[in-house]
Design brief:
160 residues, mainly alpha, 2 domains, 59% helix, elongated, binds heme C
């Protein structure tokens, strides 16, 4: 208890609290509660600063994951699960078009002199036939710019 009253850093105390609480009975818990409230305030302060940024990114990734469901009919992120419907998209960033091992690309895709980046993916997903004429990706593309942005942000993380 004495240690509780004199603990100089409430945030540390707050972190260790659940373990200690399990062991100690209720009496004298006021000081601990006060320290926990302080620790909570410190953590809340940090969360308020970080949350808007974290929240926006998390939302974008969630949206991208939902959009990617459309792609999953043909694309996997795991090379071991690649089918003949579409090349695996793991490692797609920085990869030259038409070069995932083990996939039978069209001549058009193999000949396309494109390296996949945010910009080239954006253009391809908006108008795949415009960007790689004669490619065999049987998908009409993503009309909404926000869907393209979200799925590219998701791929950037999930394709690593
Ligand atoms: C109906 C199946 C199908 C769907 C749905 C589909 N794709 Fe494809 N995709 C393909 C095929 C097939 C190719 C290879 C085309 C070729 O060789 O001409 C391809 C190629 C690609 C490539 C080039 C890959 C490489 O290795 O060069 C990217 C990137 C890509 N698709 C992204 C997407 C994304 C993102 C979506 C969802 C928004 C999507 N595709 C939806 C079938 C599909």
């Amino acid at each position: 208890m004495i240690a509780d009253m004199t603990m100089p850093t409430p945030s540390l105390h707050g972190f260790s609290r659940p373990v200690r609480r399990a062991k100690s009975a209720g009496s004298g818990s006021k000081a601990r509660r006060a320290a926990a409230v302080l620790a909570g305030a410190v953590l809340l302060g940090a969360a308020v600063v970080v949350a808007p940024w974290r929240g926006a990114l998390a939302q974008e990734l969630d949206k991208g994951e939902r959009v990617f469901k459309k792609c999953q009919a043909c694309h996997s992120l795991d090379p071991a699960q690649q089918t003949d419907k579409g090349p695996a998209l793991q490692g797609v960033f920085g990869r030259k078009a038409g070069t995932a091992p083990g996939f039978a690309y069209s001549e058009a895709m193999k000949a396309a002199n494109i390296v996949w980046t945010e910009e080239t993916l954006e253009a391809f997903l908006a108008d795949s036939q415009g960007v790689v004429p004669g490619n065999t990706m049987n998908f009409s593309g993503l009309r909404k710019p926000e869907d393209r942005t979200a799925v590219i942000a998701y791929l950037r993380e999930a394709s690593k």
